[in-house]
Amino acid sequence: MPNIKQQKRRVSIAARQRLENLHHRSAAKTLFKRLEAAVAEGDEEATAAAHRDLVRCLDRAAATRAIHPNRAARKKSQAAHLVAGTS
Known about the structure:
about 90 residues, mainly alpha, Methane Monooxygenase Hydroxylase, Chain G, domain 1
């Protein structure tokens, strides 16, 4: 544990940022599973909505560096291939 006041603050800030990053990663995984379920169901409208939500979530996560931008691009590409396979 740090003894310096500023370092104590940095520890709490880092913990808060870790939780925020976890939130972004978890949301992206959930939305990807939701997209896979919509594709398996065969509902075009639900698939389009799920894909749009996933891309928006990944872009936000990459913008805040919660995930690496290359990972976001890879996940968006995987989602596009998944959606294209249904049409």
